[in-house]
Structures are given as C-alpha cells and as structure tokens.
Design a protein that fits this description.
This protein is an alpha+beta fold. Helix content is 32%, strand content 23%.
Length: 184
C-alpha cells in the first residue's frame, strides 16, 4: 500500500508534505529578506491556512455523508467531535481525574476495523491526563457509567496528518463504539 495515497486519505497528506518541503527549502535561503520576501512569506502562510481550511471542510463533509448514510442522530461539539449515546447507563457521570474503563472498537469511515478490546483487556485511563486521543478525552466527559456511545472523531482530534504509522492511515477519521463499563 502506498503510504501517501491510502483510499481514505486521498492525496491530501502528500500535497501537504510537498508544500512543507518547498517551504523548508525556501526558508533555508541565506539571502537577506526584503519586504517583498516578507510579503511572499505572508502569501505562503495564507495559502497554507486556506488549504488547511479546505481539508477540514472536506473531512467534515465526509463525516456528514457518513452520518446521513446510517441515519444517526448525532450531537456535534465545537471541536467537531460527534457523539450519539444509544444506550443510557445509570451510573455516575465521568469527570476529570476519574479512572475510566471501557470496551471499544475503532473503525475507519470505510468500515475497516482498526482496533478492538474484544478478546483483550478493556482500555483503562485517567480522564484529563492524556494517554488517549483528544477526541476520546473530550467525548468521555459526556458519559455516565454504563452508557453505550458512538463517537466520530475527526483526524485533528485523533492521529492527525501522520496517522499512527501502523494501522491508522494519515488524516483518518475514526468511528468509536464505546461502552463505559466502570468509573472510579
């Protein structure tokens, strides 16, 4: 499989890397910068910002299309995380500093299974202290012990432009199915 052209990520990571390589070589020029050089840097910065906005819009549209295909009624946070609690628990609500234990599966928007706790120990982590994707950190705070939830985590809240260099491709949106089985 070509690292830069995974079926879910398209050409976006390759183009970004190319832009940054060009920017790197341009910035290594030892000639003094004139005001036109500063203006050129501003144009490059604006181009990168606009390109990143386009990437976010494209990913957001892919997520919306996925949600529509499955007809899920999801909530959206200001960061872009989507969540849908489809089975309510009756335990306490998760809070920062608590230890969360959860069963989970992680899939790509294509449906490919990336990881699962099935047949393994559940995931255990301290809420608010890192160690898991920021989208999972954010989403867990909406849950009560016993809740079953689906999270759709955009790439910027998951593994970003580089993926995990293993199973998660660059720029991947992740779909979590989670059961919060315990809180301490």
């Amino acid at each position: 499989m070509n690292f830069f052209c995974h079926k879910d990520s398209g050409y976006i990571p390759m183009l970004l890397i190319s832009i940054f390589i060009c920017f790197f070589f341009y910035s290594c020029d030892n000639t003094p910068q004139s005001s036109s050089g500063t203006k050129h840097f501003g144009n490059i910065k604006d181009s990168i910002i606009n390109y990143n906005k386009k990437i976010v819009r494209t990913e957001d549209q892919q997520i919306e299309d996925f949600i529509a295909r499955y007809q899920w009624k999801m909530n959206k946070t200001t960061t872009g995380l989507r969540y849908m609690i489809y089975k309510k628990g009756d335990g306490p609500q998760a809070k920062k500093g608590m230890i969360a234990t959860l069963d989970y599966s992680i899939r790509l928007l294509s449906g490919d299974l990336i990881n699962s706790s099935a047949g393994k120990a559940p995931l255990v982590f301290k809420i608010g202290h890192g160690g898991v994707e920021s989208g999972l950190e954010e989403g867990i705070l909406f849950l009560h012990k016993g809740d079953h939830v689906k999270f759709i985590v955009p790439s910027h809240l998951a593994f970003g432009l580089m993926g995990d260099q293993d199973k998660i491709p660059p720029g991947a949106t992740l779909v979590y199915n989670v059961e919060l089985i315990n809180l301490k």
